[in-house]
Backbone:
């Protein structure tokens, strides 16, 4: 039985937050911000309602793709999660700026997204450089797929070489959560190979129809299948 943390992204309502926790999810990912930057992003007020009503055994993860720490600070003043997931261009916020952000919010934990390009050899990427550069200021790493033409990291539904995840996990003491095209059908293999602290699913636990672009986007059957596959891995 696997005991890795289960992180489900795309939470847009209190109802979905409660549903995911009831089905066995741990970390609840909410994308929000005052300035609209990505599709289906919540306002700070909508995010705060979810943060305030997450069940006791759930953990609020707030995602931002903003790269200005003053903008992020203003968002955090309205809606403060337990963990802030930095998922914009990793080079847009320096380690020193993350330190400044943590000084402003001493109890805030940081989850830094580590971008992995699909189909590109590790030696041609800056992945391991990023890990070394950001591990001193990160409480968690979220290892996710990045498309070459995108500024932000993740939400692609695409996989990448899990051997890269394995190398990252083995190279750092920062707890690593793996992401990128993970669902019930492939999560057990990914866990066995990489031995991560946690696993993340967004696209493959959403509905497959037009409901994926609504507030209630999470498919309970897919969430449950993912949770069971993780726990049985």
Residues:
């Amino acid at each position: 039985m696997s005991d890795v943390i289960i992180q489900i992204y795309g939470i847009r309502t209190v109802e979905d937050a409660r549903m995911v926790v009831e089905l066995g999810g741990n970390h609840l990912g909410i994308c929000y911000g005052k300035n609209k930057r990505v599709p289906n992003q919540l306002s700070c007020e909508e995010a705060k309602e979810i943060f305030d009503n997450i069940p006791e055994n759930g953990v609020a993860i707030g995602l931002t793709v903003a790269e200005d720490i003053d903008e992020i600070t203003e968002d955090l003043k309205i809606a403060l999660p337990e963990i802030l997931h930095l998922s914009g261009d990793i080079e847009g916020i320096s380690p020193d700026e993350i330190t400044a952000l943590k000084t402003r919010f001493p109890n805030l934990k940081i989850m830094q997204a580590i971008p992995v390009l699909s189909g590109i050899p590790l030696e041609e990427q800056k992945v391991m450089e990023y890990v070394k550069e950001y591990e001193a200021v990160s409480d968690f790493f979220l290892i996710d797929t990045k498309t070459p033409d995108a500024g932000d990291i993740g939400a692609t539904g695409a996989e990448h070489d899990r051997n890269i995840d394995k190398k990252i996990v083995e190279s750092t003491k920062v707890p690593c959560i793996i992401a990128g095209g993970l669902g019930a059908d492939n999560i057990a293999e990914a866990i066995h190979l990489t031995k991560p602290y946690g696993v993340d699913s967004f696209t493959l636990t959403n509905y497959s129809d037009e409901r994926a672009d609504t507030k209630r986007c999470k498919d309970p059957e897919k969430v449950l299948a993912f949770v069971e596959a993780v726990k049985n891995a």
